[in-house]
Amino acid sequence: MKSLVLSLLLLVSVNIFAQETQNNIPETTTYYLIRHAEKDKSDKADKNPHLTEAGKKRAEKWASVFEEIKFDIVYSTNYNRTIETAQPTAKANDLEITLYDPRNLNSEDFTKEAYGKTVLIVGHSNTTPMLANALLNDKKYNQIDESNNANLYIVTITSNSKSSTLLKIE
After folding, report:
1. Cβ distance 156 to 164 under 8 Å?
2. Rg of the chain, C-alpha, whole Å
3. Which UniProt keywords apply (predicted)?
């Protein structure tokens, strides 16, 4: 599975760079967007649950899926479940997690901070596809089901192109 993901990522990268001339290679910003792993739903009153054991395993799996990718920034909303999902990948890249407000992520400051970098963003079922859409400036993706913790949105932006790929990593 890991080789399939890496092959797809390589294909996306080669396609982008093939479109550029050698004298005019723009900066490339690549965003990897995922939803938090499985959360503990046992206490309906808990608005900030932790991950379940399955969720912890998925968070570790994300780190494994991403092991060949050097992230410059790892973003997470300020919730236990998103931070716990981001932690293994941040640790593998020797990075601190940067907290963000999903309502303000596609701001000018965020765009400047992420420019030319490789970024992981851990969000929620209602924010992750919408952020991918905002980055693309297109309504390409719908909100995902509450049970879907497997989507990986890869958004690549250069000065003259925007592209995306949606993978499902079970």
Report:
1. yes
2. 16
3. Isomerase, Signal
- pLDDT reported for residue 145: 95
Q: Which residues are within 8 A (CB) of 143 and not within 5 positions of it... i.e. 6 or more apart? A: 125, 126, 129, 130
| Domains of the chain, earliest start first | 2-168 (3.40.50.1240)
Pairing status of strand 118-123 against strand 29-35: parallel
Rounded distance between C-alpha atoms, residue 70 and residue 113, angstroms: 16
- pTM of the full structure: 0.84
Where helices occur in 106-166 by DSSP H, the ranges are 108-114, 128-136
Residue 128 token pair: 């992750």
At residue 28's C-alpha, the angle toward residues 84 and 107, to 5°, is 60
pLDDT digits (tens, 9 = 90+) for 30-84: 999 999 999 999 999 999 999 999 999 999 999 999 999 999 999 999 999 999 9
